[in-house]
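It is worth pausing here to work through a concrete case rather than discussing structure prediction in the abstract. The textbook approach is simple: state the sequence, then state the predicted structure, then interpret. We follow exactly that order.
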Amino acid sequence: MDGTFFSIVLAVGSNTTINHPYAGAKRRERYEILRVDVDVVFQSCQSDVTHTAVIGAPHHEQRSVYTRLCQVPPQTIAAAQPGDNAENPYALCQHTQESKIVSITSQAVGHGLGIGMHEFSILHAHETAPIKPGMVLTVEPAAKDSQEFIYHLEDLFVVTQSAPKILTTCIDADDIFVIQ
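Step two, the predicted structure:
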């Protein structure tokens, strides 16, 4: 494959709580959540993107959880300013999720991306490393609904001297993706 690597994780229903679940024979059911996590390495460049879908038309709670979760990444990305510590975007993400009444499900809400898939800096409550221009970071908040399904979004951005630049612009994720 000439240095190209491609990995995709499809987690449905209760398997959304498992980062890298094994494939199974269970049939998808209406209203189940589907988490899609795609990792690609092409000519030494990494990508790591995750989005959420629903099988069939989403019901009210699913649309509500997803809509509230979608409000978290832009505010978290905007908080990643040069000179700030990596704990600052984490704290804002946690605060934003709590204000949207969407529980945070991870000890980290993003990571660096470069030669490796999960690099320094980790957006974590105790990470005091400075954020620097040129860093490529992910922000990946996740939330649970009342059925314990995980809704997960992951976007890439690069830190600049002015405003962070979002790199994952190929999909309109403002509304939950529906699989009929």
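Step three, interpretation. Helices lie at 60-70, 72-78, 87-99. The domain at 5-179 is CATH 3.90.230.10 (Creatine Amidinohydrolase).
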